[in-house]
From TrEMBL:
It comes from Zizania palustris (Northern wild rice). Its EC number is 2.5.1.18. Keywords: Transferase. One of its GO terms (cellular component) is cytoplasm. One of its GO terms (molecular function) is glutathione transferase activity. It catalyses: RX + glutathione = an S-substituted glutathione + a halide anion + H(+). Belongs to the GST superfamily. Phi family. This is glutathione transferase. Pfam families: GST_C, GST_N. GO terms for biological process: glutathione metabolic process; response to herbicide. InterPro entries: Glutathione-S-Trfase_C-like, Glutathione_S-Trfase, Glutathione_S-Trfase_N, GST_C, GST_Phi_C.
Amino acid sequence: MAAGLQLFGQPASTDVARVLTCLFEKNLEFELIRIDNFKKEHKLPEFVKLRDPTGQVTFKHGDKTIVDSRAICRYLCTEFPEDGNRTIYGTGSLERASIEQWLQAEAQSFDAPSSDLVFHLAFAPQLNMSPDEARIVENEKKLQQMLTVYDEILAKNKFLAGDEFTLADLSHLPNSHYIVSSPRGKKLFTSKKHVARWYDAISSRQSWIQVVKMRSENPGSFE
């Protein structure tokens, strides 16, 4: 039984949202300690001791502290294998290897262009900043190339690592959600049949719906 799980940050943060989704998938009890970066609450002494370089997400379990959102998700799945969704990190070495390949692809190739699009398409307008059209076009091309590969895989599989929803899919949710929230970004996903079907499936999971609800109830910081 999970005990003493603490998550520091705001649901609006993509990193925090990734961890929240995993916590809900694993049906684990936890305490969310909201830190609003806009109000500089992340400079409180206790949080300074725990924060990652970006101040986006920090996780504590007893005397363990982890600051990378993907590492936190891996930790939750390995530390609590029998709780909640038992197949989210694979049930064998081959399945886990496939999931890890996709986690690496998301972190190394999907995250950078999608994060840039999140800022320029979703956050910049809300912050009264002018989006950088050149950067948007550049990152649209990069993301389109990635999604073309995804579409080919998803033509054969229901999800990225096979026919079960896993961390491979979960890790893509936060950035994808913000991109799809803009008409321009949404076309990147809807223009590809299998990617569109996949995104509809993963974004309709109850775990993600809970995260979106938390964001709407208390948006917090966009950082």
